[in-house]
Amino acid sequence: MPAAAGVTRGGIDAMISNEPSYKERRNKRWIAISLLPAVALFIVLTAFPVVNLLALSFFHVEWREATSAFSFVGLDNYHRLFSTEKVFWDGVRNTAFFAVTAVSCQMVLGFSMALAVRTAGSYGRAVLTGIFLLPIVVPPIVIGTMWRLIMGREFGLANMLLGLLGLGPVDWLGNPDIALASVIFVDIWHWTPFVFLLMLAGLESLDGEVIEAARMDTRSRWQQIRHVVLPMMMPTIVVTLMFRVILSFKVFDEVYLLTSGGPGTATEVVNFSIYRTFFRQDQVGYGSAMSIVTLFAISVVIILARGFAQRRAARRSAVS
Amino acid sequence: MTLRLGSRILANTVVWGYALVILGPTLWVLSNAFKFKIDIITGATISPFTWINFNELLFSRQSDFLANLLNSAVIGIASTAIVIVVATMAAFTLTCLDVRPWVRWALLGWALLFHMLPTLTFVGSWYLMFSSVGLHGTYFAVIMTHAVHNLPMALFLMMSFVGALPRELIQAARMDGCSYGQVFWRIAFPLVRGGMIAATALTFIFSWSDFAISLTLTSRDTMTVPVAIATFAQEYDIRYGEMAAGTLLSIVPALLLILLGQNFIVRGLLAGAVK
What's the number of CA atoms in the CB half-sphere (13 Å) around residue A291? Predict the structure, then answer.
C-alpha cells in the first residue's frame, strides 16, 4: 500500500479512460461544493477580519451611546505604537523572554527525563501516559485556577508548605520581581509532560541497533547521547520545538487568570495588551494596529521557521 | 535489549516521581471541592467530607453554573458537528481529487498559518463584526468562531486519515462508475468513520476548553464554563470550594478522552506540525 501521499493528481482516476461530459461536470461541481464551506468559513471569519483590522488600524474609533464615530487618522496609531507606547513593548519583551525560557526548560527537562526512562521499562504505561496527558487536555483556564490557588498569598499550598519549613510567605504572583518567573513555572509544569511524551516516543522509534553499536564502540554515555542519539532525534526535536514556540506566542488564558499582566507590567504579554486595548479601554483603532503588527511579526517568524525546517529536511534526505 | 537493574529503578523513579509532580497539585486543588470553606482556609489536613459545594454550585439561586454547563455543551456539540462535516468533505477532496494546485496551496497554507496565529489577534475583529450585525452574545457567533478556530486542526487530522485509505478501493469504485460524490459518501465516508470519531472528540475538547473567544463573544446568557470559572477566581471573596467543584466538573470531558482515546490526543495536537 502506498504511504499517505500528499499530492495525487489524477490518482484515483488513473484507470478511467474517458467519461461522458455530464459526469465530468458533476465531478467538477462536487469538488467545488465540498470545498465551499471550508473556503467560506475561512474567508468570512479569518481573511475578512484581517482586512477589517487593517482598515480599522487607520482610524480612531469613538463610542458614543452605542454608536461609533470613525475618524481617519492615517498612520497615527502605528506612530503611537512605535514611538510613545511602553506597555505593549514590555509585553513583547516578556513574551519573548517567556517563550525562550519556558520552552528551553521544557525541552531540556522533557528530553533528559525521556533519556532516563528510555526504553520505558516502567510499569503501568497507560496510567502514566494518562497522567502526563492530563495537563494538556484540561481547559487551560483550569491550570490557571489551580495555580492561582496554590500560589495564593494566604491560603495557598505553596506558602503552607514553606510555612512548615518556617519560611515565607512569598507573594508568588504579586511581587513584580518573581511574578513572571511564577507564570513561566506554571507553563513549564503545564507543557513539559507533552514534550516528554514526544521525546520518549521519538527515542523509542530510534534504531536500537545503531545505539547498541555505539555502546559497543565503548563510547562514553555522554558521547553516545551527543553524537548518536541527539542527531537521530533532531526531527522530533525540531517539530516539538516549533510546536511549543508557536503555542507560547498564543499564551493568554493562564496569564489572564494568574496575574492579568500585573503587577505593573511584570507579566504583560502581547495577547493581553491586545485584549486590554480592545475590550477594557475600547481603543479599537489602536488595538487593531497592535493586532496587525503582531499578526505580521508572527507570520514572518512562522514562515522563516518553516522554510528553515523544510530546507533542513531536504538536506537530510539528500544525505541519506 | 535488557536494561540493568539500576537504570530500571532510575527510569521508574523518574517517571513516577514526575507523575506525582503533575498529579499532586491537581488532586490538592480538586480535593477542595469536597471540603467546607473553613477547612480550606485553615488548611486542615483531615477534614470532613461534604457535597455542599456541588449543591451550591449547581442548584443555588446565585449560581448559573448549570446553565454554563449547558451552554458549553450546546456550543461544543454544534461547532464540532459543523467542523467535522466541513473538514471531512474538504479533506477527501484535497487528498484524493484533482484540485487546482493554487487552490490547494492557498487553502492549506492559510489554514496552517491561521492555526498558528494567536487567537487574540482575531477576537477584536470578530467582536466588532458580530456586534455590527446584532449577533454579539448569541450562540451563533460563538459556534461559528469556534468552528473556524478548530477547522484547521480537524482538516489536517482528517487529511491524514483519508490519506491512509487504500487507494485501490477508491480507484475500483471509480471504475465501477461512481462519481466523486458517490465515492465520498459510499466509500470514503464509512471507512474514515474511526478517524472522524477521533477528530470529533478532540474538536469538542478544544471548543469546551476555549477561553479567549468565549470571554469576548458570549453574554451572560451564553457564558461557557471556562469563563464562569475565571469569574469565580476573580471575585473579591473567592468561593474556593465552589470553584474547585466547578473545576472538577469542567475536566470531566478531558478525563473521558484520556480514558477512551489516549492515542489520538498527541496526533491531534500535532496536526499540521508534521508534514
Answer: 31
Rounded average pLDDT per 10-residue block, chain B, 275 residues: 67 85 88 82 74 84 87 96 96 89 92 92 92 90 96 93 87 85 90 89 92 92 92 78 88 88 77 60
Q: Cα A258 from chain centroid?
A: 18
- φ/ψ (deg, to 5) at A64: -130, 110
Burial of A78 (0-12, 13-18, 19+ CB in 10 A): middle
The region, left, alpha or beta by phi > 0 then psi within -120 to 50, assigned to residue A118 is left
Dump pLDDT digits (tens) for A170-206: 888 888 888 999 999 999 999 999 999 889 888 888 8
Interface of A with B in 43-102 (CB under 8 A): 45-50, 52-53, 56
Separation CA A17–CA A19 (nearest Å): 7
Find chain A residues with C-beta within 8 A of B257's C-beta.
137
Chain A contact for B274 (CB, 8 A cutoff): yes
Q: How far is CA A146 from the centre of its chain?
A: 21
* Domain count across chain A: 1
Residue A20 in contact with partner chain B when CB distance is under 8 A: no
What would the grid cell of residue A189 be? Answer: 509544569
Which residues does chain A have within 8 Å of residue B93's beta carbon, measured at their own beta carbons?
A: 30-31, 34-35
Q: How many CB pairs under 8 A join A and B?
A: 312
In one letter, which amino acid is A246? I
**CB proximity under 8 Å: A 143-172 to B:** 144-150, 155, 157, 160
The CATH number given to whatever domain includes residue A220 is 1.10.3720.10
The C-alpha angle with vertex A44 and arms to A38 and A45, in degrees rounded to 5, equals 85
Q: How does DSSP classify residue A123?
A: S
ipTM above 0.90, yes or no: no
The reply to whether A87 falls in a domain is no
Q: Which of A33, A239, A291 sits opposite B273 (nearest CB)?
A: A239
Higher pLDDT: B98 or A11? It is B98
User: What range does the domain containing A210 cover?
Assistant: 93-269
Q: Global pTM? A: 0.89
Across the interface, of A13, A253, A303, the residue whose CB is closest to B212 is: A253
Neighbours of B33 (CB within 10 A): 23
Residue A304 within a domain? no
Amino acid symbol at B242: E
Is A35 contained in some domain? no
Do A246 and B116 lie within an 8 Å CB cutoff? Answer: yes
Interface of B with A in 223-242 (CB under 8 A): 225-226, 229-230, 232-234, 240
Please indicate whether, in this complex, the C-beta atoms of B258 and A134 are within 8 angstroms of each other: yes
Taking the CA atoms of A37, A38, A39 and A45 in sequence, report the sign of the dihedral they define. Answer: positive
**Amino acid found at B180:** Y
Q: Which grid cell sits at A32?
A: 467545488
* Residue A295 and residue A51 in contact, taking contact as beta carbons nearer than 8 Å: no
Domains (range + CATH), chain B: 5-52 (no CATH), 64-269 (1.10.3720.10)
Q: Which of A105, A298, A246, A315 is nearest to B271 (CA)?
A: A246
